[in-house]
Amino acid sequence: MSKSTRKPSAAKAGKIKPKKPSDSFPLFPHATGRWCKKVRGQFCYFGKVADDPEGVAALDLWLEQKDDLLAGRTPRTTGDGLTIRDLLNRFLTSKRHLVDTRELTHRSFSDYHQSCIRIAGFFGKGRRVDNLAAGDFERYRAELAKTRGAVALGNEIGRARVVFKYGFDSGLIDKPVRYGSSFNKPSKKTLRIARQANGSRLFEPAEIRQLLEVAPVQLRAMVLLGVNAGLGNADVSGLRRSHLDLDGGWLNYPRPKTGVERRCPLWPETVEAILEAIEARPKPKDESHADRVFLTKHGRPWCRDADIGEEGAKIKRPADKLAPQFTKLRTDAGVTGNGKGFYSLRNSFASIAGGSTDQVAVDHVMGHVDPSMAANYRHRIDDKRLEKVSEHVRRWLFPKPKKKGGKKA
Predict the structure, then answer these.
(1) What percent of the chain has pLDDT over 90?
(2) DSSP 237-279
(3) Does residue 16 form part of some domain?
(4) Residues 275-320 pLDDT 10s
(5) Helix, strand, or coil here: 404?
(6) What is the DSSP letter of 83?
(7) What strands lie across the sheet with 244-245, from one edge to the other?
(8) Which domain-ending residue is among 168, 198, 228?
(9) Which pLDDT score is estimated for 11?
(10) 33 located within any domain
(11) How far apart are CA 311 and CA 371, in angstroms?
């Protein structure tokens, strides 16, 4: 029998199989002589072992392509073009500067930061911006829509467009990103249908009175401010004694979100509740909060800004302690209804106050921006108009008892 003509194996020939630089090294030397990683059932290669025995270049390439490969995308070469990572970092840096000059709120910055995380996670940090196509944005919209309603989806799309527009406006890319025809916010019709499906988010007067009956001291005053003056969560949290004229019964409080002047008459019930809340207010944890009307039991504001930290630090989301406490209050009061949060008191005010037929006065109380030409010439609104709006809502919430015969007392 003739001898076999097969070549001896590498082991028999005395060849040593390459080893990983360390046990924690994510790649392994493949039989083909290349650094390799099995991803989603497929072998992916990162250069020859002979040219890179320590796997330094291979590891860099793996980290660059990792996000795309794990997500099932074909990695795009970065070349000299602007990457998603660079765009997002430049964008967030510009927004951080606006936070420093108080032109952007911490909450808005936090929202942008979360949107940037989602963009990087979907497209990949190493993806070149000029390689993005309409199909990419169509798939991104579909992914966002899986976990978001119409309003939240529209907000997310809006922020993403702001990010990519920044790239072109800042000269980081030569031409605007083309989104195609699918990467649009939901239509007004879709938003209307979504609102109808969610049901009314307005409180009925009997429900608000139920809340007031069982509310603790601070929450009672907050609820009254919500329906009396249209204040939201952040508004009541940031309210200071300097904003109040309790002797005269007035609130003078520019809206933090827009900076628009806001003035509103306070009901006697509201003034009384505020005085009780101030009397029972916990000692402030920080002296900078000494003028705050409302503080938690730990002496901190009910709604705190996001902590954006130093450059590169982890960003903490804004803390809203009022929302869960209001949900508990609703439960204690037996007030049902999906989506009825504290902010619904502001919505209720706006809806009922509109019946006063003086929308200009209503907008002034709520701190709405008036884009009309007339607003440029209007420097004040007569207090009687504001009082009429306020009293209209008060009669809705606290109707006078009817006498025998059907007439109100």
Answers:
(1) 57
(2) HH-BGGGEETTTTEEE---TTT----EEEPPHHHHHHHHHHHH
(3) no
(4) 999 999 999 998 989 999 999 999 999 988 655 555 444 566 667 8
(5) coil
(6) B
(7) 244-245, 250-252, 263-265
(8) 198
(9) 44
(10) yes
(11) 37
CB 60 within 8 A of CB 126: no
Q: 3-state DSSP call for residue 321?
A: coil
Residues 6+ apart with CB under 8 A from 402: 408, 409
Give the position of tokens 């009309």.
372
| Statement to judge: residues 234 and 360 lie in one domain | yes
Question: What pLDDT, on a 0 to 100 scale, did the predictor assign at position 224?
Answer: 98
pLDDT of residue 246: 96
Give me 248's structure tokens.
Answer: 């005269």
124: alpha, beta or left? (left if phi > 0; alpha if psi -120 to 50) = left
- Residue 12 carries which DSSP code? T
Q: Are residues 59 and 98 in the same domain?
A: no
Task: Report, as ranges of residue numbers, the positions in the chain whose pLDDT lies below 50.
Answer: 1-5, 8-14, 311-313
d(CA 107, CA 93): 15
Name the residue range of residue 97's domain.
84-198
pTM above 0.85, yes or no: no
Q: What is the pLDDT of residue 10?
A: 44
- Name every residue whose Cβ is closer than 8 Å to that of residue 214 and which is 6 or more positions away in sequence: 329, 332, 333
Q: And the tokens for 108?
A: 């808005």
Q: How far apart are the first and last CA of the chain?
A: 122
Q: Please name the residue that has the structure tokens 């072992």.
A: 49
